[in-house]
Amino acid sequence: MAALGYIVLISILALGLLALLMLIVTSVSMRKGRFYLPRLLRPGLIILEGLAKTLWRVSNLDDREVVSFSIRLHNQLNRERFSRLAMEDRMIFLPQCLRSIECPSNLSTEGLVCKRCMRCDIGRSIDELEGHGCRVCVVPGSTFVKRLVKKYRPKGIVGVGCLMEVKEGLEMTDRMDLPAMGVVTTKDGCIETTLDWPTLIEVATLRPAE
Ligand code: SF4
What we know:
Layout: H1 2-32, H2 38-59, H3 63-83, E1 90-95, E2 107-108, E3 111-112, H4 121-131, E4 135-139, H5 142-152, E5 156-161, H6 163-175, E6 180-184, H7 197-204
Parallel strand pairs: 1-4, 1-5, 5-6
Antiparallel strand pairs: 2-3
The structure holds iron/sulfur cluster.
C-alpha cells in the first residue's frame, strides 16, 4: 500500500515538473518571439491559456498575446506539411465580414458567391487565389467550413478570421488531422473587416523550403 502511495506521489511530482517546464519554455518563447522545443510548446500553451488570466498579473501576459502566439505556433508546426500539398488540394476560407456593406451577393450552400462587383478586396483577390489552383470559399462560420471540408475533402486549409475564430478553427482542423494555416484579419468586427491580402496569398501559395 505504501509503495502504491509512493508511485502516485512520484507520478504527481513528475507531472507537476513537466507542466512547469512546459510553462517556462512557453513563456520564454513568447517573450523572445522564438519557438524553443515546439513539440513541447503545444501542450504548454493549452495549460498556459487556462492559466493566462491568473498569470497575467504576475507575468504581464494577456489573453490576446497568448492566443496570437498559439496561432503562430500552430502555423509554424503545420507549415512544412502544408507547403508540400499540391495547390489543388488546398482550400481557402474567407469570412464574409470582409465583404462590402453594399455586397450584392447572396448566401448559397457553398457560402457567399462573389459577383466580382469590386466593392471589396474579395472580388479583387479571389481570382488571383483561384488562379493558383486552390478553391476559395467565403463563409459565415465554422458550420460551413465543416460541411465544405466534408464535401471537397481538401488536404490542407488556410483559414482567415479574427484572432479567436482562427484559434478555434486551427483547433478544429487539428482534430480533423488537416494541416491548416491561420491568417488573422487586420481589423476585427462583424462588418467590413480588413486583411493583409499579400500575406494571405503568400501563405496560400507556400512551397517547401529548398
Ligand atoms: S466583390 Fe464580391 S464579396 Fe465583395 S462586395 Fe462585391 S460581390 Fe460582395
